[in-house]
Sequence to fold (458 residues):
Amino acid sequence: MGELGCDPAERTAESRRPLEPDPDNAGGGKTVKESKRKFGFKLPPEWGADPVPAEKKILGLFDYFILWSSLAVGLLVLQAGGLLVPGLSLVEAVIVAVLGSVVGSLMLALAGGLGSKYGIPTMVSLRAVLGLKGSFVPTILNVIQLIGWASFEIIIMANSAISITGSFLGPYTLHFWIIVFAVWCFLLCIGGPLVVVRHWLEKFAIWFTYGTAIYITYIVLSKFPQLLVSTGDGSLSIPLALDLVIAMPISWWPLISDYNRFSKSQKDAFLGTLSGYTFANSWFYALGALLVLAYPGESIIYSITSITFGGLALTLLLVDETDNCFADIYSGAVSIQNISPKTKQLKIVAAITVVSVLLAALMPTEWQSAYEGFLLYIGAVFVPLLGVLAVDFYLVRKRAYSLEEFYSTAKGLRVKPIISWIVGVIVYFIFYNYTTWGSSIPSFIISAVMLYVLEKGI
Fold:
């Protein structure tokens, strides 16, 4: 990436000068010369591990409400909502969906503060918290979870498409749709976050999703009013159910600054993220529970196609589902650039797309059985790390890092935050395996408190 891809330790004052904007480029940031590629057209710039130029910090509250409400909805969220029942009653499931979404979305919005203030991606922001080399561990774990998410997204989109079109290519139909959706998500990655938010989501995708979700909710409630008084069988505790809901917004916090770094103000990014994610995540978790109760023993995809005009509804949901897969692939590439800043983003995007396609093609038919465990793994790793980040940024350092702490003066390792994170992970698994109290909130609190005590010498 030329100067923009230089090693952090070798950054100079020259490389930090404001970049010359390209008025013809929606992504902006590099010079016209830098933006031209051998493909015959200009690709958006890739800032990689470097701060976004001030003139490209253009997204406001409405943009972030749309972005994060869009990323909070989808077929996999409905699938996760279905895990809440029949263990809980519908009323309990709705309460848990709302409460878990508020808690998780608040954590998510707080995590984005570093990105919106300094214009840097999430994994780079962890350099000041864990040290440069310390940030490599969550970076690797994040790339693993993002490839997993991308694979899940691709397979559920492909299966959804088959339920609409039928197996018109016989056993190769699944592979056809896997490739189609992967290629589209790859193209969205080429467009970049500003194009996806301003041109894809705000003009098209999110409105299809809102309208379709309203329609599905109305149809199911009108056909099955008795579900409102359904009782749970007690097989799922409320604290564990909260963990399953909180895990969804938490799964996005390792990505959040990759997008909130484009914000005009920290306040807009915070409020847009909090309100957008809480609204949509609550709705889709509750709707997923409702669909499972209405069509017991059936998949979420079948449940949707069973309603009147269900095939059309599923098609419209697929329109917006692609942005989730885009975010997984794009942020996977940005995360890798935290470790290898000189590697071209487009090459990493292509590699992650290929790996995700292969995993989706090889995924067993009963992939849903691994989904709950995948969500809990995400919570175990990233909830306590978020507690460490929040305390270090908001309480210990009082939101006053210098930009150089992410680059030229970044320490190799910061031992106290790393210890606090490890303890939080251990606490998560202890609470998960030996109690019914839930794991997310205790591990977040304990890792946060431990860091504060270690830093303040209490």
User: Anything to note?
Assistant: The domain at 51-456 is CATH 1.10.4160.10 (Hydantoin permease). Residues 1-39 have pLDDT under 50 and may be disordered. The chain has one domain: 51-456.
